[in-house]
Specification:
The protein is an alpha/beta fold. It contains ten helices and twelve strands. The protein starts with a strand and ends in a 7-residue tail after the last helix.
Length: 251
C-alpha cells in the first residue's frame, strides 16, 4: 500500500503567505521560505507553493522565490500560478521546483497538458482543479477561483488524466477555509475514476478530517494551509494520529 501524503500549501501574494475563506478575505500567514523550511523539518511529505494572483495580474510566478525555497527544503515541492508555457516550466524546474501546477492555462488550452507531459514527463505535471457546486453540479473555476466555467469537474479530471497529467490537485471552493472537512464525495468519485493520484484540498479543520478524506475520499494526499500556518495542528502529531488510526503514513 502506498503511504498517504500530508502536504502544507503556501498561497503566495506579493511575496507573503496568505490564507482566506472560500478564496477571499486573505490574511497574512508569514514568510513562505521560513514556513517551507519549518514544514520540511516537521516531516511534511511535500510542499505546494501557489502564486494565487499571478494569473489575475497577468504575470509569471516568482522564480526568485522558488530559488530561495529550493535552497532551504529537502522534500519535493510543487509550484503553481501564472504558468502557461513550456519556457515557464523550464525556468521553474531550473530554479529548483520538482513539479509544476497548472489550472487556468490548461482550461484555456487543454492541449498544453499533452505538450507539457511530453516535454517534462507526467510526473512533473500537476493539474489543479478549483471546483464549486452550482445547483448540485460541480463546475471548474479558473483565475484563482474568480471565473466560473461550464466545464463539469469530473469530466475535466478524466480529460486531463488522459492528456498526461501526473496528478490532480482538487480544491473544493465550497469547503476552502471553512474547516468543516474535505469534500469527500467528489474526491472519492474522482479518485475512484482515475489511475493517477488525487490530492484533496479545502476544508481541513481537525485530524479526523484527514482520516476521512483518506478513507471515504480515497485521496492519495491531503493538502491544508491555515491549520498548519496558525499552528492549530502540528504535522508530527497529525501523522502519529493517522498511523494509530490505521492509515499508512511516513513518520
Amino acid at each position: 500500500m502506498l503511504t498517504k501524503r500530508i502536504i502544507p500549501c503556501l498561497d503566495i501574494k506579493e511575496g507573503r503567505t496568505v490564507k482566506g475563506v472560500n478564496f477571499v478575505e486573505l490574511r497574512d500567514a508569514g514568510d513562505p521560505v521560513e514556513l517551507g523550511k519549518i514544514y520540511a523539518d516537521e516531516g511534511a511529505d511535500e510542499l505546494v507553493f501557489l502564486d494565487i494572483t499571478a494569473t489575475v495580474e497577468k504575470r509569471k510566478t516568482l522564480v526568485a522565490l522558488v530559488t530561495k525555497v529550493a535552497k532551504t527544503v529537502n522534500i519535493p515541492f510543487t509550484v503553481g500560478g501564472g504558468i502557461s508555457t513550456v519556457d515557464d516550466i523550464k525556468a521553474l524546474l531550473n530554479a529548483g521546483a520538482d513539479k509544476i501546477s497548472i489550472n487556468s492555462a490548461a482550461v484555456k488550452k487543454p492541449g498544453i497538458v499533452d505538450e507539457m507531459a511530453r516535454e517534462f514527463g507526467s510526473q512533473c505535471i500537476v493539474v489543479a482543479i478549483d471546483t464549486k457546486s452550482l445547483d448540485g453540479v460541480d463546475f471548474v473555476h479558473t483565475h484563482g477561483g474568480r471565473k466560473p466555467t461550464l466545464i463539469q469537474t469530473q469530466k475535466w479530471a478524466k480529460e486531463v488524466a488522459e492528456r498526461g497529467a501526473g496528478e490532480i490537485l482538487l480544491t473544493s471552493m465550497d469547503h476552502d477555509g471553512v474547516k468543516n472537512g474535505f469534500a469527500n464525495e467528489i474526491t472519492g468519485e474522482i479518485s475512484s475514476m482515475l489511475s493517477i493520484p488525487v490530492i484533496a484540498s479545502g476544508g481541513a479543520g481537525n485530524m479526523q478530517h484527514f482520516k476521512d478524506v483518506f478513507n471515504a475520499g480515497k485521496a492519495d494526499a491531503a493538502l491544508a494551509a491555515s491549520i498548519f500556518h496558525f499552528k492549530e495542528i502540528p504535522i508530527p502529531e497529525l501523522k502519529k494520529y493517522l498511523q494509530a488510526e490505521g492509515i499508512s503514513i511516513r513518520l
